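Q: What does the predicted 3D structure of 3 beta-hydroxysteroid dehydrogenase/Delta 5-->4-isomerase look like?
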Amino acid sequence: MTLDARCLVTGSAGHLGEALVRTLRAAGHDAVGLDLVPSPFTDVVGSIVDRDLVRQAIRGVRTVFHAATLHKPHVATHARQAFVDTNVSGTLNLLEESAAAGVSAFVFTSTTSVFGDALTPPPGAPAAWVTEDVAPVPKNIYGVTKAAAEDLCQLFHRNRKLPCVVLRTSRFFPEEDDDRAVRQSYDDANLKANELLFRRVDLEDVVSAHLAAAQRAAQVGFRKYIISATTPFLPGDLAELRRDAPSVVARRVPGYEAVYARRGWRMFPLIGRVYVNARAREELGWRPRHDFASVLQRIEAGEDPRSPLARVVGSKGYHWQTFAEGPFPVE
């Protein structure tokens, strides 16, 4: 991906889309944003379901960052057909026009939600060690359509030789958790710090993963990667994580307890899954900068635990309306 090559970013009004456009433009790239929602980072206002609009937006583009999607928070408010239209048909439009235009790299933002029920071990079993080799068992229309879009990417690489890299990102949204019990039990900053151990990633690292994927797409061809903060846990910790997570964290991140005690924070009593980013680090040369230990250091220094990019992008929400039961309704 050279500085003079044009990039298309779908979902440019969203968290990741805005962050990508900001970063690309700051580095001197010609980045075109596409979104349904007008924004300072959206050049083409419209839907990826509109094939003609996609064809026009992709002219002259060498790299596509496809972040536009209906998300998990939309499951309770949008019809299943809308998920198929946006997440499957919209992705198909982009892939077909990318192949026709000779795009050199297609980076698809997927989600760890595709793993679905595979993330929940049965009672008494160790925590799940989640690598790309875990077979997805989608549990809602969001997971089903993102998995289908991943398969479309693989198909277009196989049949049209389009370099496609799929990034399964863990949580990076700044909004409150959708689980009322969790929101009431933990301070929001405490909750997000805990999640960095096993299921969260900073927005800045998500962006750097996308850039690394674009750089390596030609040599990778097609590959799926988990994008999450680097966990301090090891496979030998998995059984104990289901019984006594605080003890495991104290062993792997010495000193965390004192930092938490000074703030009245608590660690989760148990952890049921751990996302593993080793493949992305090894094959893409991705170097995530933010993890549980680095956040503790920033907190101790009196700094904001979020990256500067995450702070400037801020919170966007997922709906135009507000809901009495939380930041968004649960199906």
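A (community wiki): The structure tokens above were generated from the sequence. The CA atoms of residues 52 and 178 lie 37 Å apart. The mean pLDDT is 93.
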